[in-house]
Amino acid sequence: MSPMPARHVPPKKRQWLLARRPVNLNKRLHRNLVRERHHVPSLRTAFAAALLFTASPALAQQLTPEQTAQVDKIVADALSSSGVPSASIAIVQGGRIVYAKAYGDQGPNLKGPSADAKYQIASISKQFTAAALLLLENEGKLSLDDKVSKWVPDVTDAGQITIRQLLSHTAGIQDYWPQDYNFAAMEHPVTPQEIVDRWAKKPLDFAPGTAWQYSNTGYVVAGMIIEKASGTKLLDFLDAKIFKPLAMHPIDQDKAIGKGFPQGTHRFALGPVRSAKPAADGWLWAAGELAMSASDLARWDIARIDRAVLPPEDWQAQETEIKLTDGALTHYGLGVSLADRGGHLEVSHGGEAVGFLSSNVVIPDQRFAVVALVNADFGGAQEEITDEVADLLVPVDRAPATASLDQTRDALARKVFDQLRAGTLDRSLLTEDANYYFDATATGDYRNSLSALGDPVSFAAIGKARLRGGFVNRNYVIQYKDRRLVAVTYAEAGADGKFEQFIVMPR
User: Fold this and answer.
1) Phi, psi at residue 210, to the nearest 5°?
2) Distance (Å, rounded) from C-alpha 373 to C-alpha 424?
3) Average pLDDT in the 317-338 region?
């Protein structure tokens, strides 16, 4: 998982450091995040271009040839621009997996890119932890509105916190892994109780229900409740209730290290890509316990689309946005981020493990999902991939942003300037007086003198528009490599007002 236990990558708008907790670094700094992995000899900074395009398909490709080429280019561009070594993706359309493929260099533990390779998915695991509690509620073994004190009484103010608040990050319990790196204690194995003892017994960061703050610690407490209520180990419960019914084959991420598994990587600033040393056992557990292939995660996404394995009301509960006590929205349900995408619900989450990043996006009513897993905790390639694949295959009609009046007039001024230097003046844009001014001599001099300068470096407004003589005055500085000009314009009011004056002179 992540250097911070299973980082969550919140909704898109999803900047890439939002992996575990709600931190907006920049869906591309991602559409962008930070990640890490296991210590092995350093990987080369530059990976042969061929590796970026070498891929091993896991399933029959069922996209059109044009779509396949575009998806492959999206992934190759994301890896090339970020320096991320490899990616594994899966795409669901019409409620079935139509494409699964691995790209690039998964490290020395694998012979070539394999779409079956298990990447650490970090905080994407949280929705499985939440699903386990929903299933236990169905069995009558607990209620999500139970107070935590019924199950783990030694948590601070446990009598004021509900299980639902643990799952929605509204409990106020301090996060034990806010850093984007492994801190010293992570060199040593840890138990859930030891995490609780160190972090969950501190004073709450806020009164339960009054704020939203990503907390891996809350999910460790949730995992402890699962084991107490079910009488079984967390992963055994998930295997029996979810993974086997869906033919999924995830494993404990602590064991997804070494031969047969992708090598996690990280970078220090813009330095070489290096192999990442994983955290010791136990640090991610119920906050980010799983490693799986992209296709395995896609099978879970299909279950969400089909409302399978869990009763429909449980899926609905997971996808219902939690509100704070003052009515403020959190854009989060139970282990998943929620957003509106062109009028359709988008259910998503990201993950950050040591050396790994992941992004999972589902649009249930469009029967679409896309998964991207990468073996790097830098670069934000995973969100770039899921964002662009979603835009390609489930495009959203976005109304073009309405330009302001000043923007419209500035663009028109640039158009007239370009016409003057090309000798192609559109006289319908000018008033009667301006047409008088631009006689054959004026237009010839404008064309000859301006065209000789080539293209300007910039054309920018100076100051604010102002009224004068019944016209609107807007002025522009026109920058060339070795000189600067100024354009002084007057125009009729409104977006379509004709120019009364357009004089260009040295500045």
Assistant:
1) -95, -10
2) 53
3) 97
Helix (H, G, I), strand (E, B) or coil at 338: strand
CB 120 within 8 A of CB 293: no
Query: What count of residues does the chain have?
Result: 507
- Which pLDDT belongs to residue 17? 31
Distance CA 474, CA 298 (A): 55
Tell me 5's DSSP state. S
Buried b (16+ CB within 10 A) or exposed e, 87-117: bbbbbbbeeebbbbbbbbbbbeebeebbbbb
Closest CA to 167 of 341, 17, 314: 314
Give the DSSP per-residue string, 413-475. HHHHHHHHHHT---GGGB-HHHHHHS-HHHHHHHHHHHHTT-S-SEEEEEEEEEEETTEEEEE
For residue 374, the 8-state DSSP code is E
Question: If you search the block for the tokens 């194995």, which residue do you land on?
Answer: 189
Q: Are 414 and 54 in contact (CB under 8 A)?
A: no
b/e map 196-205, b = 16+ CB within 10 Å: beebbeeebe
Whether the CB-CB separation of 408 and 41 falls below 8 Å is answered with no
Find out whether 412 and 391 touch, Cβ atoms under 8 Å: no
Q: Using the predicted structure, report yes or no on whether residue 279 has a pLDDT greater than 70.
A: yes
What gap in Å lies between CA 171 and CA 216, rounded to an integer? 11
Q: What is the mean pLDDT of residues 137-166?
A: 98
By CB atoms closer than 10 A (0-12, 13-18, 19+), residue 367 is middle
Is residue 56 predicted with pLDDT exceeding 70?
no
Q: How many CB atoms lie within 10 A of CB 72?
A: 19
Please give the structure tokens belonging to residue 142: 């607990």
Radius of gyration over every alpha carbon of the chain, rounded to an integer in angstroms:
28
Instruction: Return the pLDDT at 304.
Output: 98
Give 413's contacts (C-beta < 8 A, 6+ positions apart): 459, 474, 476, 487, 489, 502
CB 17 within 8 A of CB 23: yes
Backbone φ and ψ for 274, nearest 5 degrees, come out as: -125, 155
Evaluate whether 120 touches 253 at the Cβ level (below 8 Å): yes
Q: Report the sign of the C-alpha dihedral through residues 472, 474, 494, 402, in that order.
A: negative
| Distance between CA atoms of residues 127 and 138, nearest Å | 16
pTM for the predicted model, two decimal places:
0.72
* Confidence at residue 398, expressed as pLDDT on a 0 to 100 scale: 67
Which residues, other chains included, contact 384 with Cβ-Cβ below 8 Å and sequence gap of 6+?
A: 27, 28, 30, 31, 32, 74, 78, 82
CB 375 within 8 A of CB 40: no
